[in-house]
Amino acid sequence: MNNIFNTVYRQDYLQGFSNGLNPYLKVDENQNEAYLFGFNQGRLDYERINGKIEYGIPKLIVTNKVLEDFLLAGMLGISINDDGYTAFQIDVISKWYQSGIEKYNPYQSSYLLGILEENGIEII
Questions:
Q1: Which one in 3, 77, 88, 120 has a CA-CA gap of 20 to 30 Å to 97?
Q2: Range of the domain at 91
């Protein structure tokens, strides 16, 4: 790996990483080392939470943002809907949700729900 503090290297790496997160894109072998390394890292990150691409691309793609939403749902004691996710994804999601449940504070949850209701936001 080259110097990540080099601006050009970093830009190529980040471009490759973001393309690697897209399961529909194939790696372009004609790219430079930084792009290829970033692409492989992005693909590993995608497969860590969605499963191997060779097993198929799921209907719903899990991202870190989605996982954070499930973590927050667990922290607030809100039930979750896991329809449309694969068994692999549900396993990953359940770990994040469980982590949120472990941090659940009923007083914090009721306080937040009160604020949301005051602003016309209803949690179902």
A1: 120
A2: 64-118
Q: State whether 13 and 43 are in the same domain.
A: yes
33 found inside a domain: yes
pTM of the model: 0.76
Count of CB atoms situated within 10 Å of the CB of 89? 21
In this structure, the answer to whether residues 31 and 11 fall within a common structural domain is: yes
Query: CA dist 44 to 48, 57, 63, 86, 114, Å?
Result: 6, 14, 13, 18, 41
Statement to judge: residues 82 and 47 lie in one domain: no
Considering Cα of 104, then 110, then 116, then 121, what sign does the dihedral take?
positive
Burial class of residue 10 (count of CB atoms within 10 Å of its CB; 0-12, 13-18, 19+)? middle
Quick check: is 81 in a domain? yes
Q: pLDDT per residue over 38-53, tens digit each?
A: 999 999 999 999 999 9
Q: Are 39 and 27 in contact (CB under 8 A)?
A: yes
pLDDT band at residue 70 under the 50/70/90 scheme: very high
